[in-house]
Amino acid sequence: MMRYFKIPALSIFAAVMLFMASCGKDGEGFQKTKSGLKYKFIRSGSGTKPQPGDIMLMHIKYFSAGDSLIYDSRNIKDSFTVVLVEPTFQGGVEEGFAMMGTGDSAHFKVRADSLFTKTFLTTLPVSYQPDDEIRFHVSLQRIIPKSLNDSILMARDIEMRRREFEQIELFLKQNNMDVMPTENGAYLSISKAGSGEYPKAGDTVVVSYTGRLLDGTVFDSSVDPEKPFSFVLGRQTVIQGWEECIPLLNKGTVARMVIPSDLAYGAEDYRELKGYSTLVFDVEIIDIKAALQ
Q: 213's torsion region: left (phi>0), alpha (psi -120 to 50) or beta?
């Protein structure tokens, strides 16, 4: 004969809480690492775990303490890319990322003050309290090992540079610039010779210039005679291509400088300039002011 026992609801609640406490979980099922990160796995398998420097492709969204959505990567693109780094603070969400394997889904909770100031590198919004908990929902789709990603980036870099130098050669041919590159690969063509001393490190050089892309698009200019551009040579306040070419030009010289991206802004986008952009500068040396001894 079966027996049934009526247990008060409070006793059931207490039993559940006691069980969860024994598992190290709070009332929402979150566990806590030694550093203080709160985590709860929604789906956990035996997928590969990431190593420092690996690329993690994930869906990520996070909510305020009041459960208002702050960010959802699905609203922007198919996946969110994260490079696994050391946690930006004790209990940082990066620790949670490192715990995940491919195919896993997990929730994490972190303090608002540390998240904004140490991870997002900004001030804590006035609508948040320092000890508010920001909740992250993360689904890890794929891990790209650092070694593979480095190889992919290297292959892409080689191909992009090959294309860039093909475009430079075509530009030089179309513009009748039969000149040899400088030691580091810039091209310099003088259309009007100047006179006097050449600038050296520490001198202030006053220049009128127009900067274009290879297709002729103007991206910068200082042709206003009342506002010429000036800089101190050797202080690295201009791109490397200028530091290399300007010492070859004396006062009154009019010249064209064709500067590959590795002597300009490199492989990354810079403001309106795309990565691997070759820059063409038409310059006139207005004046050279010797450095004070």
A: beta
Q: How far from chain centre, in Å, is Cα 232?
A: 29
Q: Which residues are CB-contacts of 112 (< 8 A; sequence separation ≥ 6)? A: 65, 124, 128, 129, 130, 131, 132, 133, 134
CATH class assigned to 149-289: alpha beta
> Would the pTM count as exceeding 0.70?
no
Domain ranges of the chain: 9-144, 149-289
Q: Which two tokens stand for residue 116?
A: 């904004």
- Three-state DSSP state, 40: strand
The 3-state DSSP class for residue 8 equals: coil
Q: What's phi and psi for 277, nearest 5 deg?
A: -85, 125
- DSSP conformational letter for 73: G
Alpha-carbon distance 146 to 64, whole Å? Answer: 32
Task: Give the catalytic positions in this structure.
Answer: 209, 219-220, 239, 265, 281
**What is the token pair recorded at 119?**
């991870």
CATH of 9-144, one of 3.10.50.40, 3.10.490.10, 3.20.20.120, 3.40.50.2300: 3.10.50.40
Instruction: For 76-110, write each residue's pLDDT tens digit.
Output: 876 789 999 999 999 999 999 999 999 999 999 99
